[in-house]
Amino acid sequence: MKKIKALLFVGLLMLMCQAAGRDARITFDNMTYDFGVIHESAGPVSTEFRFTNSGDAPLVIVSASASCGCTRPTFPEKPVAPGKSGKIKVTYNPAGRPGEFSKTVKVRTNAKNGKKINLKITGTVVPKD
């Protein structure tokens, strides 16, 4: 029920902004991150993709989904005001995944310049002894 209310709120917010001729815009500091060499035995590793709402309407991250179960994104659930910043945290679990990896996180927003964005993480996992 909470999720339905949140989606209705986001939809209403988007309609109000469109009617006023205002747009959210998302600008990322970086859209890729290389973990380099990580050790499987060290456990999960994380990075943060920082962004700014460079538009003049609230920015809503609608969803963020990973290309596999070994990668988990978390993102702000509340709208990001114009001029404010936020972050999408991406955690990669190297357990049982030795070798090179390249994973994508698909982000959906209400931003005029980025309705669908792909963030990317890469690296190499050294297996346990």
Question: Please, could you describe this protein's structure?
Answer:
The structure is a single chain. The chain is mainly beta and 129 residues long. Helix content is 14%, strand content 47%. It has 1 helix and 8 strands; from the N terminus they run H-E-E-E-E-E-E-E-E. It has one helix at residues 2-19, and strands spanning 26-28, 32-39, 45-53, 61-66, 71-74, 85-92, 99-109, 116-126. The strands form 2 sheets. A 4-stranded antiparallel beta sheet has the order 1-3-6-5, with no helix packed on it. A hairpin with a 6-residue loop joins strand 7 and strand 8. The longest helix has 18 residues, at 2-19. The relative contact order is 0.27.
Write the layout of secondary structure elements.
Elements: H1 2-19, E1 26-28, E2 32-39, E3 45-53, E4 61-66, E5 71-74, E6 85-92, E7 99-109, E8 116-126
Parallel strand pairs: 2-8
Antiparallel strand pairs: 1-3, 3-6, 4-7, 5-6, 7-8
The helix-and-strand class reads: mainly beta
The overall pLDDT, averaged over residues, is 90
Distance between the termini: 47 Å
User: What is the number of helical segments per DSSP (H or I, 4+ residues)?
Assistant: 1
Strand order of the largest sheet: 1-3-6-5
Enumerate the spans where pLDDT stays under 50 for 5 or more consecutive residues: none
The level of helicity is: 10-25%
Give the SSE order as H and E letters: HEEEEEEEE
How large is the radius of gyration? 17 Å
State the shape.
Answer: elongated
Beta percentage is: over 45%
Q: What's this model, at a glance?
A:
This protein has about 130 residues and is mostly beta strands.
